[in-house]
Design brief:
By secondary structure, the protein is mainly β. Helix content is 5%, strand content 43%. The chain has a single domain, classed as Rieske Iron-sulfur Protein. It has one helix and ten strands; from the N terminus they run αββββββββββ. The strands form three sheets. The chain has a four-stranded antiparallel beta sheet, with no helix packed on it. Strands 1-10-9 form a three-stranded antiparallel beta sheet, with no helix packed on it.
């Protein structure tokens, strides 16, 4: 596929996994097909919150490792975050913004439940 063709592709909803595959208040890693090719996604499930599912890059730009799904989930000033397990930078789950470095943002994807299935738009 050429670069021009890839840029014209539209995002589509894809079945990613099921609710049973998720760990409450924790992350799991998954592969997803994106318009830029396959990507590793960190999927977080926060039952009982207004927004229960979040999908952000699994790749930690500070360490270069795919570890974000193994980070510690919490909140800072009421906003859900994940702390990278290596150097402990915090990323907002809603928009991927790094709290310690404004120049760094992880990619995010829309994700939702359809029954017990988890769907992602990529």
């Amino acid at each position: 596929m050429t670069t021009a063709a890839a840029k014209t592709m539209t995002r589509t909803w894809q079945l990613l996994c099921t609710r049973a595959d998720l760990v409450p208040f924790s992350g799991v890693a998954a592969w997803v097909d994106t318009t830029d090719g396959p990507a590793q996604v960190a999927l977080f499930y926060l039952p009982g919150h207004a927004q229960e599912l979040y999908a952000i890059d699994h790749h930690d730009p500070f360490s270069g490792a795919n570890v974000i799904a193994r980070g510690i989930v919490g909140d800072i000033k009421g906003e859900p975050v994940v702390a990278s397990p290596i150097y402990k930078q915090h990323f907002h789950l809603t928009d991927g913004q790094c709290l310690e470095d404004d120049s760094v943002t992880l990619r995010t994807w829309p994700v939702s439940f359809k029954g017990d299935e988890v769907w992602i738009e990529a």
